């Protein structure tokens, strides 16, 4: 049983205290985005009320304040990931942009014709399509680690895919579609053994597991603030210094340059080399408030409590008529993806919404994975630290009565 005071945590999230369709909101769509605590909302309004100014260029007081707060987030993200230096943290729009940045810079420069990139069958579209685009341009080859019927990666097949032609392995740490926790350490070590670099998509991992880039030894890692209680439109890309320095810039513009002239331009040092233009300053600043909030509760405490919720949900769901879980990996976090025999996921989602319950239905941006399971999509309930066993109980009862309605 958790030592966390969940009632107190719930009070930090104003959005939770409302009725939806006449019922108390039950928010189980955390794998799409999490809700924001008051401290994050306050950080945003504080910035716009008192500090708003463009960063890095101004010498006036507001510019100094906003620059300091912006760079403090970089330090906090660096510590959150245990990066060796804050300069190894690049601000992005989110995971998607982080992966695209690596494809457009590292990929364009270091991956050529006949080279190979390995991803997995569990990937989000954002960790598939950028590599398809690169492969089309560079005539490199995309290979896919398969999954077994439980939704776990088949590492024996991964071994067969690896070779000296492998330049990059890019996989997620935790699957947003099924909740599978992947054996990233083994994946990283094996990639390094053949000289390949590794990018970890930690979008679904950072809210639910401790991520330590130095311990893992990954070369790149991308995540989004909005899934870790922070604002939308902001994320971070970690990269090892030597790699980031060897990579060409991403976008051209202000901030990413040292000197510009028509006879030639020199680029700024990392991380600024990759941060062209005015960023999402207020949202970056509020991102720090989100990570401070997580650190205060403790990621290990959050993960342990969410595991309790997951076990409880599995226990109750096992008793639901026609329940068919999709993804039954031994190592899972926070997500139950399922079908109910004879009921379309979309219909279930609508009926649950009428009872105030927010779940996700569909392919969860992982269409190739759905194809492997020979389904169009699932119903996905994904939990966060502010969810409760009472909510899960209410959800399962709602599910049972919805099924009865459909079976009439
Ligand atoms: N990868 C994974 C595993 C995800 O869960 C998500 C978000 N659902 C993404 C990538 C994309 O993140 P974003 O849309 O924030 O860029």
Automatic annotation (TrEMBL):
<dbReference type="InterPro" id="IPR015422">
    <property type="entry name" value="PyrdxlP-dep_Trfase_small"/>
</dbReference>
<dbReference type="InterPro" id="IPR010970">
    <property type="entry name" value="Cys_dSase_SufS"/>
</dbReference>
<keyword id="KW-0663">Pyridoxal phosphate</keyword>
<dbReference type="GO" id="GO:0031071">
    <property type="term" value="F:cysteine desulfurase activity"/>
</dbReference>
<dbReference type="InterPro" id="IPR000192">
    <property type="entry name" value="Aminotrans_V_dom"/>
</dbReference>
<dbReference type="InterPro" id="IPR015424">
    <property type="entry name" value="PyrdxlP-dep_Trfase"/>
</dbReference>
<dbReference type="Pfam" id="PF00266">
    <property type="entry name" value="Aminotran_5"/>
</dbReference>
<comment type="similarity">
    <text>Belongs to the class-V pyridoxal-phosphate-dependent aminotransferase family. Csd subfamily.</text>
</comment>
<dbReference type="InterPro" id="IPR016454">
    <property type="entry name" value="Cysteine_dSase"/>
</dbReference>
<dbReference type="InterPro" id="IPR015421">
    <property type="entry name" value="PyrdxlP-dep_Trfase_major"/>
</dbReference>
<feature type="domain" description="Aminotransferase class V">
    <location>
        <begin position="26"/>
        <end position="395"/>
    </location>
</feature>
<protein>
    <recommendedName>
        <fullName>Cysteine desulfurase</fullName>
        <ecNumber>2.8.1.7</ecNumber>
    </recommendedName>
</protein>
<comment type="function">
    <text>Catalyzes the removal of elemental sulfur and selenium atoms from L-cysteine, L-cystine, L-selenocysteine, and L-selenocystine to produce L-alanine.</text>
</comment>
<dbReference type="GO" id="GO:0030170">
    <property type="term" value="F:pyridoxal phosphate binding"/>
</dbReference>
<keyword id="KW-0456">Lyase</keyword>
<dbReference type="GO" id="GO:0016829">
    <property type="term" value="F:lyase activity"/>
</dbReference>
<keyword id="KW-0808">Transferase</keyword>
<dbReference type="InterPro" id="IPR020578">
    <property type="entry name" value="Aminotrans_V_PyrdxlP_BS"/>
</dbReference>
<dbReference type="GO" id="GO:0006534">
    <property type="term" value="P:cysteine metabolic process"/>
</dbReference>
């Amino acid at each position: 049983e958790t030592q966390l005071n969940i009632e107190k945590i719930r009070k930090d999230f104003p959005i939770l205290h409302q009725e939806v369709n006449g019922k108390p909101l039950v928010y189980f769509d955390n794998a799409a985005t999490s809700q924001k605590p008051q401290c994050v909302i306050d950080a945003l309004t504080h910035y716009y009320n008192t500090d708003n100014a463009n960063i890095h260029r101004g010498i006036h007081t507001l510019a100094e304040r906003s620059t300091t707060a912006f760079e403090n987030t970089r330090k906090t993200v660096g510590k959150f990931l245990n990066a060796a230096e804050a300069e190894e943290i690049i601000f992005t729009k989110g995971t998607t942009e982080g992966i695209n940045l690596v494809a457009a810079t590292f990929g364009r420069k270091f991956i050529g014709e006949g080279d190979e990139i390995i991803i997995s069958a569990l990937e989000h579209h954002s960790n598939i399509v950028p590599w398809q685009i690169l492969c089309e341009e560079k005539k490199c080859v995309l290979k896919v680690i398969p999954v077994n019927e439980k939704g776990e990666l088949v590492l024996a097949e991964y071994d067969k895919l690896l070779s000296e032609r492998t330049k990059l392995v890019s996989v997620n740490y935790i699957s947003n579609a099924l909740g599978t926790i992947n054996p990233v350490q083994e994946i990283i070590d094996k990639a390094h053994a053949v000289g390949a670099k590794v990018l970890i998509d930690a979008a679904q991992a950072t809210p639910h597991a401790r991520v330590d880039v130095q311990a893992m030894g990954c070369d790149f890692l991308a995540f989004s603030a909005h899934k870790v209680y922070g604002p939308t439109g902001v994320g971070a890309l970690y990269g090892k210094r030597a790699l980031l320095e060897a990579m060409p810039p991403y976008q051209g513009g202000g901030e990413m340059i040292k000197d510009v002239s028509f006879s030639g331009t020199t680029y700024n040092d990392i991380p600024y080399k990759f941060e062209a233009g005015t960023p999402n300053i207020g949202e970056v600043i509020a991102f720090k408030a989100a990570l401070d909030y997580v650190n205060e509760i403790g990621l290990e405490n959050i993960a342990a409590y969410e595991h309790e919720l997951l076990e409880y949900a599995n226990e109750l769901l096992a008793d639901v008529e026609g329940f068919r879980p999709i993804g039954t990996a031994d190592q899972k976090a926070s997500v139950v993806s399922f079908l109910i025999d004879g009921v379309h996921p979309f219909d279930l989602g609508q009926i649950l919404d009428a009872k105030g319950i927010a779940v996700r239905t569909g392919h969860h941006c992982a269409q190739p994975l759905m194809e492997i399971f020979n389904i169009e999509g699932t119903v996905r309930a994904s939990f966060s630290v502010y969810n409760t066993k009472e909510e899960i109980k209410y959800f399962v009862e709602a599910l049972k009565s919805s099924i009865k309605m459909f079976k009439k």
